[in-house]
Design goal:
The chain is an alpha/beta fold. The chain folds into three domains: 42 residues, no CATH class; 200 residues, Rossmann fold, CATH 3.40.50; 165 residues, Dimethylsulfoxide Reductase, domain 2. The protein contains 18 helices and 19 strands. Strands 5-4-17-16-15-6-7-13-14 form a nine-stranded mixed β-sheet. Helix 3 packs parallel to helix 18. The radius of gyration is 22 Å and the shape is globular. The termini are far apart. The relative contact order is 0.19. Bound molecules: iron/sulfur cluster.
Length: 425
């Protein structure tokens, strides 16, 4: 029997499950307990597909020393006039802090993966505020749980058992005392655990949210967004009549037609419901520390994503300084990608520009972005090979643990190395 680590926090999705047991033998994770299949794979395969320090020479990525890779990264950023730092979401918050310091030092733009997932959530909350709560409160109190435009049964696998559907809470004892609603454009595995499925026409969430607000305020409505009037009335009554309600929402709401206006309507619906009962709302954040990226950027610059330092002070403008837009318009001449894989997710035009400019990738694993990079710097896996802080989807910070040694330095150490070289010390 190897060494057993208890209460390990899972560094994969925004649930940050903190009850994992990890067994390590001869410097490798050999088994896990309580981990979902995605988490299990992340821990057990931590040593597979590792990136190597590489620099592109004559069009080919050639293996070099860490020293040479970090020197080259510093040189690229030094020579750049409009650099971009992007990613941040799959690393710990001290590394995120150093990425912001680097962006300020080089006068570049910095953006996190939030700009392609819950950026509209942040923009909407800045406009009208949000009634929030912790996942612990959901477990202990929520008797009505609505999943809107998300599929936790497949994307946040333990969310339902730890926080929202089946756990025994202090005041709500398990599934039989909770009513689960799923609102989406199609049935998924999440619909199967719901007591009510509401099928909304694609791109019509804003209309349905507005109809619910109207009914809650006492107005009559007809069928809206493909949902029968009777069903809208029933859902509105359930929302008003519960003791503690919560809407968990995903990219089905943030990235469909209406974007931040959908979220604005959802936040206002929740605000209206608080005239009748206790109701809250929480985004289903994807990457394990995307919430932390927003926290760190906000406590340093005042802004949560899409920040530019070219005037010597932070400027915030999603659509202008968000990574996809900067790349699509060809407005940056070098990029540092930290803890994310934009080539796997960005529109082709943005990825093409990334392939044209000198791009530095800091990542523990080989990724699509590392294949187009000018410099690849491998790092320790945050939460497995290095410790640090991460913020759960509800904003609660948790301490990630180191359970095995890494052959590579941490993100933090690499960023410190780049900064040291750029400052000439
Ligand atoms: S639900 Fe998310 S945080 Fe929890 S074990 Fe699975 S991947 Fe990890």
């Amino acid at each position: 029997m190897g060494e057993v680590y208890k209460n390990v926090v899972c560094p994969f999705c925004g649930c940050l499950c903190d009850d994992l047991e990890v067994v390590v033998e001869n410097g490798k994770v050999v088994s896990t307990k309580n981990a979902c299949p995605i988490s299990k794979t992340k821990f057990l395969d931590h040593s597979k597909d590792r990136a190597k320090p590489q620099v592109r020479k004559d069009g080919k990525l050639i293996e070099v020393s860490m020293e040479e890779a970090i020197n080259k990264a510093a040189q690229i950023l030094k020579e750049s006039e409009f650099p971009l730092i992007y990613g941040l979401s799959s690393t710990e918050s001290d590394a995120q802090r150093l990425a912001v310091e680097l962006a300020e030092f080089i006068g570049g733009s910095i953006d996190s993966t939030a700009s392609t997932c819950h950026g509209p959530t942040i923009v909407a909350a800045q406009g009208c505020g949000a009634v929030k709560c912790t996942l612990g409160e959901v477990k202990n109190r929520a008797d009505l749980v609505i999943f809107w435009g998300c599929n936790p049964a497949e994307a946040h696998i333990r969310h339902s058992v730890r926080y929202s559907v089946t756990p025994q809470g202090m005041y709500v004892r398990g599934k039989k005392e909770r009513f689960i609603v799923h609102v989406d454009v199609r049935e998924t595995r999440t619909s199967r655990m719901a007591d009510m499925f509401v099928k909304v026409e694609p791109g019509k969430d804003y209309e349905l949210l507005s109809a619910l607000r109207a009914v809650i305020k006492g107005y009559e409505v007809g069928d809206v967004a493909g949902v029968p009037a009777e069903m809208i009335k029933q859902l509105a009554e359930r929302m008003k009549g519960c003791r503690f309600g919560i809407i968990f929402f995903g990219m089905g709401l943030t990235m469909s037609s209406g974007k931040h206006m959908n979220i604005d309507a959802a936040l206002r619906l929740v605000r209206d419901l608080n005239d009748h009962t206790k109701f809250t709302i929480t985004p289903m954040r994807g990457h394990f520390n995307v919430a932390g990226a927003g926290e760190v950027l906000t406590w340093i610059t005042g802004y949560p994503f899409a920040v530019n330092f070219s005037r010597g002070y932070p400027n915030y403008n999603p659509g202008e300084f968000s990574a996809v837009d900067l790349l699509f318009r060809g407005e940056c001449d070098a990029a540092l990608i930290l803890a994310s894989d934009p080539v796997a997710h960005f529109p082709i035009g943005a990825s093409q520009h990334l392939a044209k400019i000198p791009t530095v990738v800091i990542d523990p694993k080989v990724s699509l972005t590392s294949l187009i990079a000018e410099v690849v710097i491998p790092c320790a896996i945050a939460g497995i090979e290095s410790e640090g802080t991460a913020y759960r989807m509800d904003g609660v910070p948790l301490r990630l643990r180191k359970v095995v040694d890494s052959p590579y330095p941490t993100d933090r150490e690499i960023l410190e190395g780049i900064l040291r070289r750029m400052k000439g010390c």
